[in-house]
Hints:
Layout: E1 3-7, E2 10-12, E3 18-25, E4 34-39, E5 46-51, E6 58-60, E7 68-73, E8 78-83, E9 92-100, E10 103-106, E11 110-114
Parallel strand pairs: 2-11
Antiparallel strand pairs: 1-3, 3-8, 4-5, 4-9, 5-6, 7-8, 9-10, 9-11
Amino acid sequence: xxxxxxxxxxxxxxxxxxxxxxxxxxxxxxxxxxxxxxxxxxxxxxxxxxxxxxxxxxxxxxxxxxxxxxxxxxxxxxxxxxxxxxxxxxxxxxxxxxxxxxxxxxxxxxxxxxxx
Length: 116
């Protein structure tokens, strides 16, 4: 069974940066695509970024393009979300995700709050 554990969230001022981490166990990490989602009250869950395997091809949502980037370290079994130039509207719970067949695996999420 896959287990995903996020960390790195917190309170940051507008314009600041954070790097989120998601450590994955229970699967052959290098063989699966990984995603970051975010969810805030009153809004639908949004796919923020994804990174494929084995190519490592990345994709980010238009809403964060130019500010966020995704990367992975297969040795450390970790996927990262680098967030720069943060805005208050980026405030959300950020969760990492992978899909194994028809099953979606999620971490518990890490809270990111952007406020002055």
